[in-house]
Design a protein that fits this description.
heterodimer, A: about 210 residues, mainly alpha, 3-stranded antiparallel sheet, B: about 775 residues, alpha/beta, Barwin-like endoglucanases, 7-stranded mixed sheet, 6-stranded mixed sheet
């Protein structure tokens, strides 16, 4: 069923993807600077959305609708194909002819928890769109402010945790990547050579204990 | 798959629709941080998950008095950052629109809001009246393995020390009482010797009737990861139906329901025959015991006189390894194979696995073994396998009982809210134990009655008979979860009130079938709306702080109990200030545990850590009980030493336990086995998880899993309706074929989460002879096409 298997994301494939986006590469640094400015401002009441096309908004809406809050696993937006999830949602993504692009799994080799081995432990199919009773929960929204950086030319730090999101290319490259978080340089294979995480600690972590 | 088919499945999924202008505005709102709250605005606090006994650590993100998100706590030694779908959706269970907000008194067919003062006065007056007119055996409190340590401690202290009644019971009777009696009969101390570290340290994992992939998914992930990174790790799934767990098993062994007793004896037979037993270990550490085995004398707790009161008591006598050899002569591979349906080769494989001294073996079980008419026996037999081979109390080997509720261990077992128990392995029947409790509680000698109260099944029977008049039910939903529900039907009179001489109070967070039959409904604070302590399956005590306010006038269960106690003149039991009682109450409870090998951690230490496994001595937790070098109560040269089993000369008891058939087996009229249980997405009776859209949408209704060949014979297919009938009731359900669970021919499975499809109207109230835990896994039904 998967006629075009994207076995590797070489520079050519990626450049093709990037040019498809119709976003001049030059605007990306400017965009980042803008975002940085926004992030450093006093508590924002209105932070502009980087992407402006309807497609971006639709993707954002879809993303939000498929999960309870930012950080919750999305419900599966299709019914079962009767094959292993990872047949399409592998580490690189697969074009399915006539249907669309199955995005890669963002879960890399999650240390110690084998996160990719039992997808349906966290992601479930929806059998209905009805609810048992109304619910007033309003969850955390996705935070699109970018990571901090030492100076304008320095690579930004990662603005989010990477646990279970080790596979950077899943969200930051390819057809399923949202415009505002696509990387300008997917050909540089090792993202975390330049972009480092910020080790955040919850307030209750005692000193010396991770 | 053809493209057209693909599009069909895509469009069949809800939530994929064209986007309107309104949607675009919504999208705009969703992607701006200005209208929502961003990650950086949240304050993150630690808590254990609200649901199962695994006790995953979660970080709870709070903003402006509301829970906005959770994430798996990467620093938690239990789950290392991973959660299951229920855990990831925790925040929403707090915010269902129908949360109970105010005390409400039944008034005809409806309810009238009343004040807390009125509610407490009403409860106190009813308890007092019942006590005065009918005595302490007519009052009861029925709680839960979801009670925090505070709730359970307040209940047990108030009842035993204040009302002088032992009618304190938790719903945990329905889920792990057989594990308690299993450990108590063998080690005279409850709870496993090993811990979750065994999930990496072990080589072979034998799952006895345990669909771990769905019921303890995060722990199963740890085994899978160990399997991935450590060559040679094996999983054996012994089950009565194929489940997602079976998909990952190296060996799937399908057994006839209830025949696990024969299978375990068959393995013991081969181990003894093949000499694969650890004789020095046996000589040093084991005594042999045998109990009553006569089927007629024991019964099943549901037929004849036993249907009103089941008080069977086992009697132990000494036995020996020589007698065991004779006893096991009945369990040859051929005979066991005939009884269990398991091929002889598989029985031999299991014996080889348990008998291999070079590999660590971990046995895991939960409801399949506990909810069993001979659940205690089956617990004994699994542990026997480890005792005979010396595979116990060492990293990577041991019998490990899993629990289904977040504080079944911490509260029901450790605080001791079962009718016969006191904190820290003590029981009300022993004068010395009562004296310890009376001393710590500052009560006159002789205050606590010596006679155990009603166990859960008899408590509800007594309530319907009229022997129990006033009962308070907290944090549980018995009008969905009790087997053979017909027996507890409560019909209102013509005016809509009950007027039946009973007074039933229910504290909960949502309306349920149980609140629907209550005379008084009280709103409870849930999870992080209050301060709490839970104890998980690996003896880990975990504390969390209150993070948000409960809705309306909801309050925590323990606080409700204390207010009623104070109104009844029992304020001396709870002498702490209203705004600072958690820590002093916990520290008082902790006194019971210190110095007995049950030592729970100090409250201050619990606040600073992701929980600690008891015994905690000098601030250090214990991974392996009874093992030198791990357990501070064992001397360095003692190796493994079962120091808690004073009654057996500080040795563990190996129990000879025979096979008995189930209480009801399929026949011509009712030709199918019915087994019940859970699904991944819903937790128990679903009162919390069904209010979470994502979980409800994944599993909106209970369906019946049927074997495809049986379906073909019945002329039905997936999605069709069938009627299931037992001798007790019937129910129409949609058929599920080749779903996650696949029962063998002649067997069906129905989950119990759906209050509109009450499968417990069909189940049988047969129970274990020793633990009095009911068997939800085996009764006979008929299946008909409708």
């Amino acid at each position: 069923m998967c006629s075009t298997r994207r076995t590797s994301l070489g520079p050519h494939a990626v450049l093709a993807v990037v040019s498809l986006m119709a976003v001049p590469l030059l605007t990306v640094p400017l965009l980042t600077v803008f975002l940085l400015t926004a992030a450093c401002s006093p508590p924002a009441t209105e932070v502009a959305v980087p992407g402006t096309t309807d497609a971006v908004k639709t993707a954002a809406l879809q993303r939000a609708e498929r999960r309870s809050f930012d950080g919750a696993p999305p419900a599966i937006p299709h019914t079962s194909f009767g094959i292993a999830c990872t047949a399409c949602h592998n580490l690189e993504g697969v074009d399915v002819e006539g249907v669309g692009y199955a995005p890669p799994s963002p879960h890399g080799n999650t240390q110690g928890m084998s996160a990719i081995s039992r997808c349906q432990q966290c992601h479930v199919f929806a059998r209905t769109d009805e609810v048992f009773s109304d619910n007033t929960f309003v969850g955390l929204r996705q935070d699109l402010r970018s990571g901090g950086r030492l100076h304008a030319e320095a690579p930004p730090t990662l603005p989010h945790k990477t646990f279970m999101r080790e596979n950077c290319i899943a969200c930051h490259t390819g057809p399923a990547a949202r415009e505002e978080i696509r990387t300008s340089h997917p050909e540089r294979a090792n993202c975390r050579q330049c972009h480092v995480g910020v080790a955040t600690r919850s307030e209750f972590s005692p000193a010396g204990q991770s | 798959m053809k493209r057209r088919d693909f599009l069909k499945v895509l469009s069949a999924a809800p939530g994929i629709a064209a986007f309107s202008c309104a949607d675009r505005e919504e999208a705009e709102r969703l992607t701006t941080t200005g209208s929502g709250v961003s990650d950086a605005d949240l304050a993150w606090h630690k808590a254990p998950c609200r649901y199962c006994g695994t006790g995953c650590g979660v970080e709870v993100g709070v903003h402006d008095g509301q829970v906005k998100a959770v994430r798996g706590d990467e620093a938690s030694p239990v789950n290392r950052g991973l959660l299951c779908v229920k855990g990831y959706h925790l925040p929403a269970f707090l915010y269902g629109e129908d949360r109970l907000r105010y005390p409400m008194k039944r008034d005809g067919a409806g309810y009238t809001r009343i004040s807390w003062d009125e509610a407490f006065d009403l409860i106190a007056a009813n308890y007092q009246q019942t006590l005065d007119q009918h005595g302490p055996e007519a009052v009861a409190i029925y709680g839960s393995g979801q009670w925090t340590v505070f709730d359970g401690y307040a209940a047990t202290k108030w009842f035993r020390g204040g009302l002088r009644s032992n009618n304190v019971e938790p719903n945990a009777r329905l889920c792990m009482a057989s594990a308690v009696t299993g450990f108590m009969t063998q080690f005279q101390s409850d709870e496993p010797m090993g811990c979750y570290d065994d999930l990496e340290a072990g080589d072979d994992f034998v799952l006895w009737g345990n669909n771990m992939a769905e019921m303890h998914p995060v722990l199963f992930s740890r085994i899978l990861d160990s399997k991935r990174t450590k060559p040679g790790v094996r999983i054996v799934d012994i089950a009565t139906r194929r489940t997602p767990t079976s998909d990952y098993a190296d060996l799937y062994i399908e057994i006839q329901p209830g025949s696990d007793l024969a299978l375990a004896n068959g393995i013991l037979h081969l181990l003894v025959e093949g000499g694969q037993i650890d004789r020095p270990f046996i000589k040093e550490n084991i005594v042999f015991k045998r109990g009553i085995e006569d089927l007629d004398e024991i019964g099943y707790g549901c037929y004849g006189d036993q249907a009103e009161h089941y008080g069977f008591k086992d009697k132990a006598r000494d036995s020996s390894l020589a007698e065991l050899e004779t006893f096991l002569a009945d369990y040859t591979p051929a005979k066991v194979s005939a009884l269990t349906g398991v091929p002889e080769g598989q029985i031999r494989s299991l014996a080889k696995l348990y008998g291999d001294a070079g590999r660590g073996t971990v046995s895991l079980w939960c409801m399949g073994v506990n909810q069993h008419v001979r659940g205690t026996w089956m617990n004994n037999l699994i542990t026997d396998l480890h005792l005979l081979t010396g595979k116990i109390s060492k990293p990577g080997s041991g019998p490990f009982s899993l629990t289904g509720q977040p504080s079944a261990c911490g509260t029901a077992r450790e605080v001791g809210t079962l009718a016969h128990r006191l904190p820290a392995d003590m029981v009300v029947m022993k004068e010395a134990h009562r004296a310890v409790a009376e001393d710590i509680w500052g009560l006159p000698s002789g205050t606590i009655p010596a006679k155990p109260g009603y166990h859960t099944m008899d408590m509800f029977r007594a309530l319907m008979r009229g022997d129990v008049k006033t009962v308070w039910i907290q944090t549980t939903n018995p009008w969905v979860s009790i087997p053979n529900l017909h027996r507890i039907d409560r019909q209102p009179g013509p005016d809509g009130n009950y007027n039946d001489g009973r007074f039933i109070v229910v504290s909960d967070i949502y309306p349920t079938p149980t609140t629907a039959i209550a005379d008084l409904v009280l709103p409870a604070a849930a999870w992080v709306e209050r301060e709490g302590v839970f104890g998980n399956s690996e003896r880990r005590t975990q504390q969390w702080n209150k993070m948000v306010e409960p809705p309306g006038e909801a309050t925590e269960d323990a606080w409700q109990i204390m207010q009623v106690a104070k109104r009844m003149g029992m304020g001396h039991l709870f002498p702490w200030p209203d705004d600072d009682w958690h820590e002093p109450m916990y520290e008082e409870y902790r006194r019971f545990t210190l110095g007995h090998g049950k030592d729970v951690a100090a409250y201050t230490q619990l606040k600073e850590t992701r929980g600690l496994r008891w015994p905690v001595v000098d601030g250090k937790e214990t991974r392996y009980r009874y093992a030198a070098g791990h357990d501070p109560y064992v001397k360095k040269d003692q190796g493994v030493h079962f120091y808690k089993a004073k009654g057996y000369g500080e040795k563990a008891a190996f129990w000879l336990r025979p096979y008995h058939p189930p209480a009801e087996v399929p026949d011509d009229d009712y030709p199918f086995w019915l087994s019940t249980g859970r699904v991944l997405e819903h937790w128990h009776t679903g009162s919390m998880t069904r209010r979470v859209a994502q979980l409800h949408q994944a599993q909106p209704a209970a369906r019946v899993e049927l074997n495809r060949a049986d379906a073909t014979e019945l002329g039905v297919t997936g999605g069709d309706m069938v009627r299931l009938s037992s001798r007790r009731g019937s129910l129409e359900l949609q058929v599920e074929l080749d779903g996650r669970g696949t029962p063998p021919r002649g067997s069906v499975f129905v989950p119990f989460f759906d209050e509109s499809k009450l499968i417990n109207r069909l189940t049988l109230d047969a129970m274990d002879n020793i633990s009095k835990e009911p068997d939800y896994k085996k009764c006979a039904v008929r299946v008909e096409r409708v």
